[in-house]
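Weekly structure sync, notes
Attendees: PL, DS, HV (note-taker this week)

Item 1: Cytosine deaminase
DS walked through the input record. Source organism listed as Kribbella solani. Sequence as pasted into the shared doc:
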Amino acid sequence: MTELLRGGRGADGQGVDIRIVDDLIGELGTLTPLPGEAVVDLDGRLVLPAFAEPHVHLDKAFTAGLAANQTGDLQGAMASYSAVASMRQGDAIADRAMRALRLFVAAGTTAVRCQIGAGRLSGVTAIEALAKVREQVSAYVDLQIVAHVGVPDGGAAGHRALLHRALDAGADQLGGNPFSEDDPDLALESCLEVALDRGVELDLHVDESFDSVTLDRVAARALESGVRVVAAHCVSLGVLPDSQAKEIAAAVAAAGMSVVTLPMTNLFLQGRDVLSAKPRGLTAIDALRAAGVQVAAGSDNVRDPFNLVGRCDPLEIASLLVTAGHQQPVHAAGMVGSEARTVMGLPAGGLVAGAPAELVALGADDLGDAIARAPGDRLVWHRGQLVAQTVTTTDVPF
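Item 1 (cont.): predicted structure, written out as C-alpha cells:
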C-alpha cells in the first residue's frame, strides 16, 4: 500500500513530497502520483517526525480537582494524591488515560511512555487498567508502561515481589523513586535485581529536589550491573557548580544512561521555599549533552496535584526548553521527537527513505514558529496511517 503526501515542507524550508509505503517512508522529493495511489495535499504544511512523550503519569492526569495540593510542592502533591491512589478505581484511571492519549495523538505524538503507580495504596490496579488501554489504542499510538513502584509493607522482599507482580500485570519497564524510600540503596538494589532477573530496563525518578544529589550513585550501580537505566528529573544537577555537574554527567555517559528532563512539572514544584530568585527546575541539559548523554524531555504531569496545567502537547514542552532551558528550537524539537524516541528504545525516525512513517504535518511557517505558536492545524500519521486530523479556521476582520 502506498500513499503520497504532496506539497509539504521540511524543517529546512524546502518543499518535499513523501511517499509512504506500508509503514515506512518509501521516497522523498518531487513525486508524481502512481496509478490509483491515494494522495493527501499538505498545502505547504511543515512536516516533522512525529513527537514522542518519554515520561507522563497517565494514571494521575486530570485529578487536580480531586486532590488539592495545599503547599504547592512535591510533598504536598504526594500527600494529596494518596487519597486518590487508595481508591483503586481502574475504570476512572483508564478514562483519564484515554482522554490524555487522545490529546497527545491529536498533537502529533505517536509514542508515549507512561509512569504508572504501584504500591501499598494502589497495588497494581492502575497498571492493569493501562494494560487494557494499551490494547485499545495500539493502532494509534505505541504505549509503554513503566511500573512506578514504591516499597510496600514487607521491606525488600515485599518490594521485589511487587516489582515482579507489576511486570506480570503488564508493565514493560520498572521504575520508582528509590531515594525517597527509608532505605534508598536497598530499594535501588531491589530494582536492579528484578530488572536483571526479568531482562527489562529501569526508568527511575532521580533527584526531584535541589538538596538531593544521588545521580552519581545511580550511574555507578548502572555501570556495575549492566542494567540500562533512564533517569528522570535530576533537577539538582542543574544547580551544582559546573565542575561537579560535568563530572557527574561524564559518569552518566560512561554508564550508558539517558536522562529525561521534565520542565513543566519541575518549574511548578521546585523552589517554592526560596523567596528571592527562584532556581530553575531543569537538569543540566548542556553539561549532559556535552558529555554525550541522550537527553529527552517530557510532560510528567498533566492537570493534577503535581502540575495544575498542561495540554498534552510536546510543543508546549519544547517552548519551555527554549525559554527556561536555553535550547535552540532545533534541539528542543529533537528532545520531544527523535531523542525521546531513542530514549524509549524506538527508531529515531526522520524525513529519510526507510524511516518509520511516523509523521506530523503542522500549519506553521518553520520550526521556530511551530514551537512558539503550537498551531492547532495538524495531521498525524502512525505506522503509515492517518490517525488524527485537526484543521483550524481563523477569521479576523482586519
